[in-house]
Fold this sequence. Notes:
By secondary structure, the protein is mainly alpha-helical. The chain has ten helices and seven strands.
Amino acid sequence: xxxxxxxxxxxxxxxxxxxxxxxxxxxxxxxxxxxxxxxxxxxxxxxxxxxxxxxxxxxxxxxxxxxxxxxxxxxxxxxxxxxxxxxxxxxxxxxxxxxxxxxxxxxxxxxxxxxxxxxxxxxxxxxxxxxxxxxxxxxxxxxxxxxxxxxxxxxxxxxxxxxxxxxxxxxxxxxxxxxxxxxxxxxxxxxxxxxxxxxxxxxxxxxxxxxxxxxxxxxxxxxxxxxxxxxxxxxxxxxxxxxxxxxxxxxxxxxxxxxxxxxxxxxxxxxxxxxxxxxxxxxxxxxxxxxxxxxxxxxxxxxxxxxxxxxxxxxxxxxxxxxxxxxxxxxxxxxxxxxxxxxxxxxxxxxxxxxxxxxxxxxxxxxxxx
Length: 370
């Protein structure tokens, strides 16, 4: 019940913000302004690609909406290292949304540089970093609270309560349909990692659906790090039997081996991690682009005429709400797919040697029985 209330509240807030956006756009149209100024503003409104990319990419502030010259934002700390001046820290509000410089630094398209042309290393807490820390903190507090209930016997000797009812089926699903299905007898060894990956991706996917938040899982840096970590786990799970088949495939003509060996190595070291990285990134970015595209239609029709803008607003909002519910489903699906593919690749890494070992054990058992 609590989850449904939270989702309904998010949808309500999102819809109200969209209505407020559309009203703000029409309210800015003033017929007595010079034609050149009005034309420039119209062109700015008719650039949906820039609006969408500004929302998707990382930034040094949380931007919620703009009305006239008022920007509803939460500035974040900027931490820089200059080759000559050393460390500097200040609020991103000092840049005044890119319209001014501060202490010899300027920002353009989200990138901070020095006016003197010197190299600047940016260690700022951007919105992706801040949101990821917040999401991770909430996830840890939630799961540790559930774990304490289990230690007290709640959910063990009695029926589960509260968030236990929501989390326990998910953990059981990952255990039975992901870990055990792909890893066999070794499922317990990898269960902590698989659960960590699943819930970490899921919590960031859900936070990314909050209006004004960052699309963390739609950032290549986030997915690359997860893909590299999974690749390390996969490679650490390999055995001699696996590498023997990769480096010298049995039963294959010599000339074919010259082609097959590089392909196999490329698949293990590049293609499998890339599949994890690109799939998560592309799906999460695509959903946000579709939602923002429907919202942009309000601005496009509004720039044509007020009647068209107001008339299309309900249709655009309905499609946006529909896609929002689809994205809630995609948030769970993408967390599952990344976790499931990781377990499949891990299972493939030791499957050959594992099966061979099991066959040998079975043979020795049959001999002993005979």
